[in-house]
Structures are given as structure tokens and as C-alpha cells.
Structure prediction request, 466 residues.
Amino acid sequence: MADHLDAPSLVSPDKAPVDITDIYAFQKPGDPTKSILIMNVNPFATAPAFSADSLYELKVDTNGDALADVAFRIKFSPFEGGSQTADVRLASGSAATGRENTGTLIFDDAPVSFGSTATVTDSDSFRFFAGIRSDPFFFDLLGFLGGLVFTGDDFFKDKDVFGIALEVPNTELGPNPNVGIWGRVLESEQIDRMGRPAINTVFMSGKDKDKFNRSEPNEDVARFTDDVVAVLTSFGYSVTEAAGIAAILLPDVLTYDYSSSAGFLNGRNLTDDVIDIELAIVTNGTVTTDGVSPHKDLRKVFPYMGRPHK
Amino acid sequence: MEDINRREFLKRMGSGSGAVLGGILVPTTGLLSWSGKGVFTFRAVTGLPQDKLPSYASYVIEGSVNLTTRSGIITKTVYAGPPEAMSTIALPGLSRIVRVTEVRDSDGRLYIRGLIDDRSLLRAGETEDINIKIDPSTGVAQASFLGSKVTLGIET
Prediction:
């Protein structure tokens, strides 16, 4: 539940393809000149394919204003005869903030993988994958639902998702290595977005979850600081302390220094125990672990996520 | 087990009126759905987690219990979304069928015990024994979720 099924408008089977589960950004293992950006959707692989009516985006803020300066846009073809393809565009500057599928075409009709073999497509210095994979997220969800009483039971150990992975040269992420990453999905309007794990899930209530998903990161501080402070103060933080933490957590972008291979809070590796880190923060140190470890099925090569269980 | 005091229990079910059927007072309105001959149906819901954090999922306990035969079937399901926006997506691996083994009425409250027969489904911290207390006067049910006590609202 980093962001799986995080808002009322997403918790129906027909919305699974547009429900972002996790975002990852990390330096390519063995090559510090490139980065890996991953957006996973479709919790539990409920839907058979990506949505052809939606636009999937990985956004990059290069100057710290929580607005996109670079956007990778992925558009899928209709799912027909058990197959699907993807076009990927790269937009920069003012074009990156818009909602149209504009930008330079960097992948054309790249195949989507529906089996255990990951079909990877190369284009110049870019690499792309889309398809079903083992969900790399690890968490004792039941312990969370039971009131933070954890037993180390990894609810996601046998779950699948649909992953979108890009290998990109760092030069495409701007000259300043300190960037912000988030993903979003657009239907007729923006329906989901995510930067760091579990921000919407943990801090927003009721209809605010949909408002959060439909807003832009540059609106977060003004619109959602009170929600974050309310949860944090319930765990014993003073209002001042809570506001200080909220200022770190918002805007909801995954801060990433592409010159560093360090993990979360610098970007997010597939093996980073983000839940343990966030549990300690949210509960004021009362709970420091859910007792769950990273999955063992991760691959050493692109797209790094394990083979699907199905 | 003490005798089931159906009359006392049914009086407290929130019913404003009732009818006598086979010696049993049957409520015509109230929190629980009465189908006659000692069988009633209920549905209780709460958001999880409880306290402090916003609800992420909905815990639903529902089923039918026969006060006469002291038997019945109850299901436990965890749906994605909080109660106010509950989805039809049941979180995989968390649905349970409970076979009622005992029904007791005391002080207007209904105490139900049951068993999850398929123990292969049990997760860490989960037991096959199920205890549910239904209090019609307050409209709440008490049960457990993986060993933690939870309070559920009885839906009308």
C-alpha cells in the first residue's frame, strides 16, 4: 500500500490500470551516468493490461519549484489479441508541465510484456520496459491494518503489478543533479500521482485522497500541510515539530541526486526499506520496523523487477 | 451454555414494534434483519486501521445466525477503501468463511463463536477461533482483526 488503492476514485477494478502503486528512481547499477526511473501501476495485476485511454507520465523537476521541467510520456495502444505496444515521448521546458501527449518520440510501438520474460527495447541511449512483473514493494499490510501490530508477514511477496521502467542518461534530467521525480496518470483529467511512498495513504483522509491525487506537487504545501500535521501530532509531535516534518515530506516528490547511489530519502531503490524509515518518522520513533525484508526475486539487469508470479 | 433468552435479546434489537411468531418475538424494524424462525442476518463494518491513521480498508463481517439451532455462516472480508468509499475489490487472501459453533444471548447482547475451518488460509497472528459480540442497543459489534480488538458499526 505504498500507493496501492490509495483513493476512493481508484478502488474499482476498472481503475486498476491507472492506479499508481510505487515510484522508484535510482542510479543505474554499474553506470553512474544513467538513472533508472520506474512507475508501477495496477495493484495485484487486477487488470489484464495498461489503459489505452490514459497518459502515463514520469515527471522531473530540475529546479526545485515542484513543477515539471522534463516529462517522459507513455501512451499505450489498445489491448488486442493479447498484445499491446507503447510509445514514449520526451518533453522538456514548458511542454513538460502540460497535459497533452507532446514531446520527441523516443520509443515507437515498443512491445508490452505479458509473460515471465521481460522484453526490453533500446533506442539510442534510452532503454524501456513495460509489462507485468513481481511487485517489488514489501510491507506487512495486515499489521498496518491491525493498528501497527506487525508480525513480519509480507503481504506483497506473491503479488504482481504492471511496471513501466526507463533507463535514461542523466544528461536528460538536467544539469543540476538534485532533481524531484513523480509519476502521474491522466484520463480526461489527472487521476493519480505519487512521489514518495505512502504520503497519500497515510496522511490524507476521505475525499482529500482524491483531491491530493488530482493536484500538482507545487500546491502541496498550501493545501495539504494541515493534513500531515494532524496525523503527526496524533503520534505525540508538537505542532512545531510536525510542521517541520511536513515541510520535508511536502511537496510529494521523490528527491533524487543522480550523482549519488545512496537510497531513500535520496531517490528510491527497489530494496530500500521505505516503510521502516517512514514508520519511525510518522510514529515519532514508537514503531521502527514492520519486520519485512526486500524481495529476493529482483533481477540484476534492467528492468530489475522480478518475474511475475502468475 | 445458558439458555438463549430470545425474547430479551430481540427486545433490545432496536425494534419499535414486533410480532409473535411461534413464541418468538420477531422485530419488524431494527438493526438486524430478521427472516423468521430464529434466523437473523447482520452486516457490521469498520475502517482499518482504527485510531490515529486514516482508514485504508474496510473490514466487513456479515452473515446469518440461527438462534434456535445455534448455527450459521459468517464471512469476514477486507475491502479496499474506507467505509465511506468502500470498493468491490476484496484484498486478496483475507476473506474467511466462519462456521458458527455457538450462539449465546446475555443482557440483550449476542455472543457468537465460530471457527475458520480452512486453517491453511490463516496469516501470522490470526487464529481459527472467532468471537463476535453484537450489541443492538448501541449498534456496534466487537470482534478482532489479527488479534487486535476492533469495533464495527452495524449497518441498518
